[in-house]
Amino acid sequence: MSDVYENEIEIEAPDLTSYQRNILYCPQRFTITEASTKAGKTFSHSWWIFERAHLPFNLPGFNHWWVAPIYSQAEIAFKRLKLVLQGSQGYAFNESKLTITTPLQTVIHFKSADNPDSLYGEDVYSCVFDEAPRSSYEAFTALRSTLTATRGPMKLIGNFGGSSNWMHALKQKAVEDPENWAYFKITAYDAVAEGILDAEEVEQARKDLPPKVFKSLYLAEEQESDDMLVSFDNIADLYTNEHVAALGRYITADIALHGSDKFVLYVWYGWRLVETLMLEKCEGPEVEAAIKRLAEKHSVPRSQIAYDADGLGSFLRGYLKGAKPFNNGATPIMRKNEKVNYKNLKSQCGYELARVIRNAGMFIADPNIDKKTVNQELEQLQSWGLDNDGKVQLKPKKEIKRDLGRSPDYLDALIIRAYFNLIPKHRQAKALLA
Question: Which one of 10, 187, 326, 333 is separated from 177 by 20 to 30 angstroms, measured CA to CA?
């Protein structure tokens, strides 16, 4: 098949599989593709962005972007296309800027997503976001904004990045807005059926790799990460653990004012989460009033209220005297027979929260809680490599934000609840009598 344009540029299209054609030429403006490794997603989308730069609607100066997580990956894609085009008349290559200018004077840019601020531009008429799950949600929002003026299409591609990854979560758009969004899942066996992969090689990979790795890389299936501190089953049990006793009453709150984070407040009867309050943005007095109102409603003593005191939460010190400020980076609480050397108080509380959940010691009794969001964030309760001093730490918040595309505010408020488990018993006893 070939397309001949008015300026007599002739382009011969490659042979594409049926699933590649379905993805590239579906009517939806945005596509999300989670695919097996080596299923031809990069090759096919390279053709698509190249073809887009040569279609008749183009004018000189129209831009088409290929975006990868880091510069070196963008450079690889640039060099692959350059190698194919070298020797063809009318193409200009800029090695330093990673651009290919076509005979139509349209420009294919190969860009890095590591700085989202660099992804705002003009006259961008199409975009491929390669390995999108490994990039940040901020990069996606920048690209989506850039395409607004031209109403250009965007194709997001990558391996399965985890059930809580922002691109995987974005597939819900295909359900909510099927006119504009489409979702595709391509497995290694789909690629075998189309002649892209060899059946024996896939079978050997199944034998050689751990089941979790094989299912994630070759089947694009949801799998638990080995770094997760609680399992999918542990998380599911949270909504049925009705045996959890209601001893003591507590409030924990993650504070946010006018930022991208949310204000999340939980009311607890023991480890039974009975009420949730979430506000997108609020003023300081509103935060104070909400905490006081729910404390009075549920008879929660001031000494059994804990709030995130880092940053904006610090203003509460003067308002909620007697409540416990929670500093994430504080020194861990020393406990008898404690052998683990935690990086900070938040890490210690995160591991304690995980222990409670694994032992079926927590029950989410609030029927109005946003289960999807809570579950996604609990999946991000993960171990992280030891720091330079050999201390145990949680997955950093900036890494969670990168994966989720938002701040883990629901999780942060859950972690604070574990603080009351770590306070020495004699102090807890005094609190219960307050």
Answer: 187
